[in-house]
Amino acid sequence: MTWSLAAATALVGVLTAASSVAVSPGGVYPRDISDVCNQIKAAITNDSAVEFSLLDFNPTYNKDVGHWMTSSSQQAACSVEPGTAEDVGKILQILGDTNTPFAVKGGGHASNPGWSSTTGVQIAMYRFGEVNYDSTTNTVTVGAGLIWDDVYAGLEEHEVMVVGGRVTGVGVAGFTLGGGFSWKTNQFGLTVDNLSGYELVLANGSVLSVTAESYPDLFFGLKGGYNNFGIVTRFVLNTHPQGQVWGGLITITANHADEVTAATLKFQNSVSDPKAAILPTYNFLIGSLGVSLLMFYDGPTPPAGIFDDFLAIPYFTKDVSTRSFVDLVQVSPANATGGQRGIFHTVSVLEYTPAIMAAVKNESEFWGERLSLTASGSFISYDVEPFLSSLFSHAPEGSSAYPPSRAQGLLPLNIYYAWTLAAYDDVMHDAARQSAAQLTAVVEAEGQDIAGAALYGNYAMFDTPLERLYGDNIAKLQAIRATYDPNGVMALAGGWKF
Ligand SMILES: Cc1cc2nc3c(=O)[nH]c(=O)nc-3n(C[C@H](O)[C@H](O)[C@H](O)COP(=O)(O)OP(=O)(O)OC[C@H]3O[C@@H](n4cnc5c(N)ncnc54)[C@H](O)[C@@H]3O)c2cc1C
Ligand SMILES: *[C@@H]1O[C@H](CO)[C@@H](O)[C@H](O)[C@H]1NC(C)=O
Ligand SMILES: *[C@@H]1O[C@H](CO)[C@@H](O)[C@H](O)[C@H]1NC(C)=O
Ligand SMILES: *[C@@H]1O[C@H](CO)[C@@H](O)[C@H](O)[C@H]1NC(C)=O
Ligand SMILES: *[C@@H]1O[C@H](CO)[C@@H](O)[C@H](O)[C@H]1NC(C)=O
Ligand SMILES: *[C@@H]1O[C@H](CO)[C@@H](O)[C@H](O)[C@H]1NC(C)=O
Can you give the residue ranges of every domain in the chain? Predict the structure, then answer.
């Protein structure tokens, strides 16, 4: 079977699977959590709502507990959609007083199980859906329930843009609370480098406007510190002018993968224009390797030469043009590869070399063949993200929880495995660990000192030591957490915990 036909068949299958909802395992919850749900229901205003599973016939509940990876979802006792920051405060106070496990979810793209799901109370932020542009401050206030597609669509009429997600469907909240690698990163740094404020609800119910001036400690901590300090209801992002962009998606079959590798290395080593970016992904799908290549140029026409080598490679599909930013983001097939069990893991690379690129291809074929035959592996994928090495230079050292050091640029390589059967969760997790270790060894053998290099929290697997994400920032982050959440209420929610 050719990769092309296989890919098309697989995508249709996955889309069908993604639209069916998880079945409730009985729908029986401890009486005390149901009581908490009812207590919340009685306390909130009518801007907010509590939802129950109703034996799976409640689409709002199903959406609230749903995730891009099905392994990131759990059946919660109830879901809550708060509509105001004050109601978020009331909910947190009840959860804290009753010591109830809970989760907070933005776009639901967390790869680690339990990071934004719970068997307790699921908080889903969808009702925070505003996109309010302020042309006097060149900022936009965005709700914590949005996905980037919505933000870009809302900014289009104002002809401005923010430093946000690269593909369709990803949530603003988790992305921004972890760091944020964007098409704009070569120009402006991470999403956290281009942020001027947060609306944060503390566990005691207080609603804070967090800026560099009002709460410098929280402003630092929230730039990478996720849900440790409270629940963020709104983000204030810096904007800059935006016109049409150029780029899109090319898919390439296995017999031309080495041409993509050569072009990628040449791009990394010769293109210094920060408006240009690529995202080649080596994917093993239904028995063979394929490459998905996303290309981006921040302007209607790229300067001659930058993308020529990529465009000369024979392709299977090609959708590349001058288009709006939101159109470019939506060309990616990201929605189609979700809807299965999954995990991310990561390696930080200083620069790609021929040996590292060969190892990436070898890993995707080695694990792709093995895991598809033995562990219901359906999509084995490696994202190569060759940013400019200056990517961390756009904000001062010590300005954010992540990255813990800006002394050297770290390029996050993303490992993504998808599979169908829960029985293979441990096997798949372990394979991703082994693959990350193998790639780390290859990178180190190339002379790159990455032994203590930070790993990106939005890609790293759940058992990664906290030191690998936050380095020397941990003590400071723990102190900030102790100040603003002295009773450890936010520890009742999953995630990276200080
Ligand atoms: C298809 C795909 C593409 C991706 N592309 C990129 C990319 O280009 N660049 C990049 O940097 N990353 C990327 N990622 C990783 C992405 O940044 C993470 O998956 C991120 O966590 C997604 O945010 P979310 O709101 O959708 O996740 P969620 O699962 O909703 O939340 C993730 C974490 O944030 C916490 N959280 C969510 N909302 C709040 C809140 N309001 N207050 C406090 N804590 C909160 C949750 O508790 C959880 O710990 C991608 C992921 C996927 C699946
Ligand atoms: C919500 O409550 C307010 C009063 O607090 C009331 O005026 C309004 O009609 C209510 N709205 C709905 C939809 O019930
Ligand atoms: C992003 O932040 C960097 C560093 O603070 C700054 O140089 C740049 O102008 C910002 N970009 C935008 C769009 O705000
Ligand atoms: C991907 O899914 C989200 C819903 O999670 C939807 O809003 C978005 O439009 C989808 N993207 C595409 C390209 O269909
Ligand atoms: C390919 O990857 C596997 C698994 O990491 C490894 O054992 C093997 O040595 C690699 N082969 C080559 C040629 O690098
Ligand atoms: C909540 O905690 C913050 C930070 O410690 C404090 O400033 C605020 O006064 C507290 N609010 C209430 C209502 O106790």
Answer: 5-127, 131-242, 245-467
What's the CATH number for 245-467?
3.40.462.20
Residue type, 121: V
The hierarchical CATH code for the domain 5-127 is 3.30.43.10
Tokens of 4: 């092309």
Q: Check if 238 has its Cβ closer than 6 Å to any atom of ligand 3.
A: yes
What's the CA-to-centroid distance between 441 and ligand 4, angstroms? Answer: 37
Q: Report the Cα 494 to chain-centroid distance in Å.
A: 16
Ligand 5 atom nearest residue 367's Cα: 4
Does the global pTM surpass 0.90?
A: yes
- Whole-number Å distance, alpha carbon 86 to ligand 6 midpoint, is 14
C-alpha dihedral sign at 295, 301, 307, 312: positive
Which of 88, 93, 200, 206 gets mutated to test ligand 6 (max ligand atoms within 8 A of its CB)? 206
**Are 177 and 230 within 8 A, CB to CB?**
no
Nearest ligand to the CA atom of 215: 6
* C-beta of 415 in contact with ligand 5 (< 6 A): no
Q: What atom of ligand 4 comes closest to residue 150's alpha carbon?
A: 7
The count of residues in the chain is 498
Q: Which CATH class is domain 131-242?
A: alpha beta
Cα of 458 to ligand 6 centre, how many Å?
30
List per-residue pLDDT tens for the chain, 498 residues long.
233 433 443 443 333 333 333 333 344 556 689 999 999 999 999 999 999 998 879 999 999 999 999 999 999 999 999 999 999 999 999 999 999 999 999 999 999 999 999 999 999 999 999 999 999 999 999 999 999 999 999 999 999 999 999 999 999 999 999 999 999 999 999 999 999 999 999 999 999 999 999 999 999 999 999 999 999 999 999 999 999 999 999 999 999 999 999 999 999 999 999 999 999 999 999 899 999 999 999 999 999 999 999 999 999 999 999 999 999 999 999 999 999 999 999 999 999 999 999 999 999 999 999 999 999 999 999 999 999 999 999 999 999 999 999 999 999 999 999 999 999 999 999 999 999 999 999 999 999 999 999 999 999 999 999 999 999 999 999 999 999 999 999 999 999 999
* CA 489 to centroid of ligand 6, rounded, Å: 14
User: Which of 279, 291, 286, 282 has the alpha carbon at shortest distance from 316?
Assistant: 291
Written as six digits, the tokens of 107 are: 């776009």
Two structure tokens written together for 490: 């936010």
Please give the torsion angle defined by the CA atoms of residues 401, 406, 408 and 414, in that order, rounded to the nearest 10 degrees: 30
Q: Ligand 4 centroid to 263 CA: how many Å?
A: 30
